[in-house]
């Protein structure tokens, strides 16, 4: 779980808890990372458990570029798949199935990382699943669609892991599936086209719906300090958003209880804060 705080010009703050967002587990050994292109040289037959969607529209090509965020976790893979971002057809993309050691009712933080080379800066992808419930989609807004995400943009996933969504197994499901499909964006900017990739996806196990990690609690706000307590992680991250859903990391602590420094009331029209443990 995470605690959320609305910091407005009149100085009010509200703490809420919801089932759409959980603190991150410290059980990194339970992470499962899958690569789209381990050894395949085919643009149609990707390495399982990855698969391409709507191949007939305009297929991805093979690339030797890989995200450096995955080394040495997934060394020696052949590369990734790439596409000129703006030339993707709406609905084209790829999916992956978590086939390794899952349990019914499990909750996952789904993350992606992509190569940084010419990576698209404004692409929007949609997140979907046929057998799981999707929540907490990064960058989602009511206007753009609650399952549309900005996580595949260079600012968030270039050579680093980006949170995409939370995925909860439905009853009797032990192999959760998630799909990412093109919506809009991708340049060009100036005379240069931008690319997008299929590289690595991580399923980070958070627990089961009835056995979630201890929540972080926002327990005080005074002056320019935001106090928190609880949580179960190696570090505690303060996220900020001008509108709910588009969270940016702005500070990190390594113990609890503690506090974060934030801007004084009245310096901006509105700001939302949340703290996660990971």
Runs in which pLDDT lies below 50 for 5 or more consecutive residues are: 1-29
The number of distinct structural domains comes to: 2
Specify Rg, calculated over alpha carbons.
19 Å
CATH topology category name of the largest domain = Jelly Rolls
CATH superfamily of the largest domain: Galactose-binding domain-like
| Strand content bin | 35-45%
Shape-level CATH architecture of the largest domain = Sandwich
Secondary structure: helix percent: under 10%
Would you mind describing this structure in some detail?
By secondary structure, the chain is mainly beta. It folds into two domains: about 5-25 and about 215-275, no CATH class; about 30-210, Jelly Rolls, CATH 2.60.120. About 0% of the residues lie in helices and about 40% in strands. The strands form five sheets. The protein has a five-stranded antiparallel β-sheet, with no helix packed on it. Strands 3-15-8-12-10 form a five-stranded antiparallel β-sheet, with no helix packed on it. Strands 4-7-13-9-11 form a five-stranded antiparallel β-sheet, with no helix packed on it. The protein is globular. The model is unreliable at about 1-30 (pLDDT under 50).
Quick synopsis:
1% of the residues lie in helices and 41% in strands. It has 278 residues and is mainly β. It folds into 2 domains: 3-23 and 214-277, no CATH class; 28-208, Sandwich (Jelly Rolls).
Provide keyphrases for this structure.
278 residues, Jelly Rolls, 5-stranded antiparallel β-sheet, disordered N terminus
């Amino acid at each position: 779980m995470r605690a959320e705080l609305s910091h407005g010009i009149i100085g009010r703050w509200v703490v809420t808890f919801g089932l759409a967002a959980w603190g991150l587990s410290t059980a990194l050994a339970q992470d499962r990372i899958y690569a789209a292109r381990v050894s395949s040289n085919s643009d149609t037959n990707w390495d399982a458990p990855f698969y391409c969607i709507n191949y007939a529209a305009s297929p991805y090509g093979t690339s030797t570029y890989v995200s450096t965020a995955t080394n040495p976790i997934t060394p020696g893979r052949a590369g990734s798949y790439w596409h000129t971002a703006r030339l993707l057809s709406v609905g084209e993309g790829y999916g992956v199935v978590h086939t390794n050691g899952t349990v019914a009712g499990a909750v996952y933080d789904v993350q992606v990382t992509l190569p940084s080379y010419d990576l698209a800066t404004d692409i929007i992808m949609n997140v979907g699943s046929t057998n799981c419930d999707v929540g907490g989609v990064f960058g989602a807004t009511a206007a753009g669609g609650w399952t549309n995400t900005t996580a595949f943009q260079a600012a968030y996933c270039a050579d680093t892991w980006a949170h995409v969504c939370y995925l909860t197994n439905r009853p009797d499901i032990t192999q959760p599936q998630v799909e990412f499909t093109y919506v809009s964006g991708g340049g060009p900017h100036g005379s240069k086209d931008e690319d997008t990739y299929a590289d690595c996806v991580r399923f980070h196990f958070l627990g089961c719906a009835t056995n979630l990690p201890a929540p972080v609690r926002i327990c005080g706000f005074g002056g320019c300090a935001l106090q928190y307590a609880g949580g179960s992680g190696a570090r505690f991250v303060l996220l900020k958003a001008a509108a709910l859903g588009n969270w940016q990391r702005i500070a990190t602590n390594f113990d609890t209880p503690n506090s974060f420094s934030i801007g004084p009331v009245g310096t901006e029209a509105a700001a939302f804060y949340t703290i996660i443990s990971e």
